[in-house]
Amino acid sequence: MIQYSRGIRVHAGLIDWLWVRIHTDTGLTGLGETYPCSPAELGVIERSFAPHLLGADPLNIDKLWADLFLGVSYHGWAGAEVRALSAIDMALWDLAGKHANLPVYQLLGGASRQTIPIYNTCYDHLDFHKEPVRLARELLESGIRAMKIWPFDPVALRLRGERLSPQGLQEGLEPLRLIRQELGDAIAVAMEFHGYWHLPDAIRIAKALEPYDPMWLEEMLPQDNLAAYRELASATCLPLTISERLMTRWGFREVLHNRAARVIMPDISWCGGISEAKKIAAMAETEYLPVAPHNCGGPVLHFASAHLAANLTNLYILETVRRHYLDEYRGLLTADLLPINGRLPLPPGPGLGVDLMPDVLTRPNVCVTHLRA
């Protein structure tokens, strides 16, 4: 039975993480995470979720998910409500794994691979705008053979995503052009666009990128018009990837049915948790589409994403951020999950296999809220 929970707000740089720790009468705890607006997400847990959770059986994960979702569905099924639900669901899977004394990936159906393919999202000590080849070489030397960059973002922000000039187009192409010129196809390069572009210029950019064969084009347009994405997909031979900002299986349903994306990218801490990410991946598999989970949040998400990636039969590749696991996550959790020869090992157990370091709760950038019956 769930006795109480803690909402743990952490201000980390420009992002607020929310860790949720659920406590039971057996002494077991479960840990979950979401971001980036911890006051809003914690407010949902305090006001809407805690009354349903306290006193409930934490092993009834599907029932609790459905009850919590129903309780906030009239608010709309996107935003803080689903992010908060994602953290709760992650914590419940952690609890279930500890109860069974098994890692979460075993509860999901077992490991589909012995190591997990990854790419590096380049928030890094090297600026890919200025030193793209040096950065790519450094990643290759560490065994990582795929990276993600967003060189068109400065152009988009100057132009509000439209009326792209020839000079702006060349500016955005330059990092990938240099990597291909120096390294050929030794490293895969995904192109991120953060939804900044309008359709006509997105098509121009996609066509200009085709000779350089990027791994994918991610979020070229905003997420609220999937018919436009279908038009973009029909205008280029390059694969589109969508998107961590879609929430729940219903949010992904249209993009799966209209074939706008070739790679599906849910974020466990945003889409509805491990439960929902597994269902989204199964839906993608019925369309013969691979999944590349978004993993750009905090350290608990990193472990949870690895458990999902270990299990999925239609995994394409998992996002990781070198700056996060080598620097920002250090000292926060009881274990680290680092690449070995450019791939992640299977994550440990039981549950997610990790907990908060005891001193974390006393740090000045951490605020703890107790929710009791």
Briefly characterize the structure.
The chain is an alpha/beta fold. Helices cover 42% and strands 17% of the residues.
Count of distinct structural domains:
2
Tally of helical segments: 14
CATH classification, class level of the largest domain = Alpha Beta
Quote the distance from N terminus to C terminus: 11 Å
Please state the CA-atom Rg, rounded to the nearest Å.
20 Å
Order of helices and strands: EEEHHHHEHEHHEHEHEHEHHHEHEE
Class of secondary structure makeup = alpha/beta
Low-pLDDT ranges: none
The CATH superfamily of the largest domain appears as Enolase-like C-terminal domain
Overall geometry comes to globular
Describe the structure.
- By secondary structure, the protein is an alpha/beta fold.
- It folds into 2 domains: 2-101 and 358-372, Enolase-like, N-terminal domain (Enolase-like, domain 1, 2-Layer Sandwich); 106-345, TIM Barrel (Alpha-Beta Barrel).
- Helices cover 42% and strands 17% of the residues.
- The protein is built from 14 helices and 12 strands.
- It has helices spanning 38-53, 61-72, 80-100, 104-107, 132-141, 153-159, 166-183, 199-209, 226-234, 248-257, 268-271, 273-286, 299-311, 322-328; strands spanning 2-12, 15-24, 29-34, 115-121, 146-149, 188-192, 217-218, 240-242, 263-264, 318-320, 343-345, 366-372.
- Strands 4, 5, 6, 7, 8, 9, 10 and 11 form an 8-stranded mixed beta sheet that branches. It has a 4-stranded antiparallel beta sheet with strand order 3-2-1-12, sandwiched between helices.
- Helix 1 (38-53) crosses helix 2, helix 1 (38-53) crosses helix 3 and helix 3 (80-100) crosses helix 12 (273-286).
- The longest helix has 21 residues, at 80-100.
- It is globular, with a radius of gyration of 20 Å.
- The relative contact order is 0.16.
- The model has no long low-confidence stretch (mean pLDDT 95).
